[in-house]
Automatic annotation (TrEMBL):
It catalyses: UDP-alpha-D-glucose + 2 NAD(+) + H2O = UDP-alpha-D-glucuronate + 2 NADH + 3 H(+). PANTHER family: UDP-GLUCOSE 6-DEHYDROGENASE TUAD. Keywords: NAD, Oxidoreductase. It comes from the Bacteria. Residues 353-455 form the UDP-glucose/GDP-mannose dehydrogenase C-terminal domain. PROSITE patterns: PROKAR_LIPOPROTEIN. Gene3D superfamilies: Cytochrome c1, transmembrane anchor, C-terminal (1.20.5.100), NAD(P)-binding Rossmann-like Domain (3.40.50.720). Its EC number is 1.1.1.22. This is UDP-glucose 6-dehydrogenase. Pathway: Nucleotide-sugar biosynthesis; UDP-alpha-D-glucuronate biosynthesis; UDP-alpha-D-glucuronate from UDP-alpha-D-glucose: step 1/1. It is an enzyme of class 1 (oxidoreductase). Belongs to the UDP-glucose/GDP-mannose dehydrogenase family.
Amino acid sequence: MRVCVIGTGYVGLVTGACLAHVGHHVICVDNNEEKVKLMQSGQSPIFEPGLSDIIKAAIQSEKIEFTTDLAAGVAHGQILFIAVGTPALPNGESDTRYVEAVARGIGSHLSSDYKVIVNKSTVPIGSGDWVRMLIMEGFAEQRATLNAAVLAGAGATEDLVTRKVLSPDPAFDVVSNPEFLREGCAVDDTFNPDRIVLGSTSAKAIALMQELYAPIVRREYAIDKTLPPVPVVETDLSSAEMIKYAANAFLATKISFINEVANICERVGADVVEVAKGIGLDSRVGNKFLQAGIGWGGSCFPKDVSALIHTADDYGYEAHLLKAAVSVNQQQRIIAIEKLQQVLKILKGKTVGLLGLTFKPDTDDLRDAPALNIIEQLARLGTKVKAYDPIIAQTGMRHGLSDVMVETDAERLADGCDALVLVTDWKQFRELDYAKMASLMHTPVMIDGRNFLDRKVLEQAGFRYVGVGRG
Ligand code: NAD
């Protein structure tokens, strides 16, 4: 099928590349020229395991193209994905200006050929109808411009014919198809989704989306091909939009729950790791998202939970539980500072090293990463902050890291530090030479913000080990 993906970030680029990999013809549109040039040369502007390989293969097999030309993308696609960012505004509301620009842009290039317009971006509940309205407005503007040109005798006839503007209103349907991929394993998640959600009232649009996803639903590209087909949830637009917010709000609340339990564990002398194991074995609870630590972050949970709270507020409902989940998380973000103060007392003039900066391992995404709060707080307290993160060391990325000295390996990081804080659970941090690192530090203290390291190994290496909620 012919597909156009607008916005080539973590979601759009992975979606476009994976759809090209399964055999569709994909044009990816982005308004960032530098990014487009990079992708045209076969490189991925983001770090995501396996992504570069499938982009290169898709370019070679001529299944994927990259452009800044929205008109070309719209003309090409039977199915058009909107996958631009929807960051949070300062009041917590979702900033939908990029979706608005793209929807109007699509409208201004539509002809009468039937298209399915897919909201892949996480958009506030009710956005399906809003996007339809914007597309119609964009189309009306296009028609008015062309009509004016005809009236002025500017010879737009050829354009009118090729774009079929003289035919009736454009035929299109809007589908909500929220994305659930996790950064760090986005390609695997796209080929092995737990479910696909399709929200629309149009049977025709749903049928085309089913056809698009058929190879993935049949598990043709799955790690385990013996699994039953991927469940497809067909629902109305608003329910599909709500599923995305409710899923993220639930996961964020689950983490805040175990962090609250961890804080109580610390006070009563229980070990949250044992507690999580004990409750996670209950199939009604499950063991995922029960790792206590320094809180949730990243580009989705914080903004999506805030947006849902904001939506509830708009409809006169106070989302008490979600507000509590956010408040526990804000407190949890500074728990590393409290632990450093308990061990080192005065932080002014001390040097603290952060192991990891990204909000989770296997990604280069620093958006709303807990590390940024920790850096800000430590800098405010007069502490010198150093950091080592495998991907930041590799990419040389420094945006947003002005208050921190970025080191190129863990031993350089440890050198001269009064304490280390493990912020991101990169698996290679389990293999470091901690005895060597301890010997390079003023005081070998490890605050394990993810309960990720082996306490015994660290203590044998000479560290004072402090976890989260470990009694
Ligand atoms: P991103 O910021 O990484 O990428 C957005 C891209 O859109 C950028 O490349 C930007 O240049 C491009 N863009 C912006 N305006 C444009 C325009 N007018 N025309 C063309 N391109 C334009 O965002 P992301 O992380 O991929 O997220 C996209 C959406 O998916 C968001 O709504 C997000 O909430 C949702 N989502 C993200 C994730 C995730 O893990 N990142 C997971 C699920 C859902």
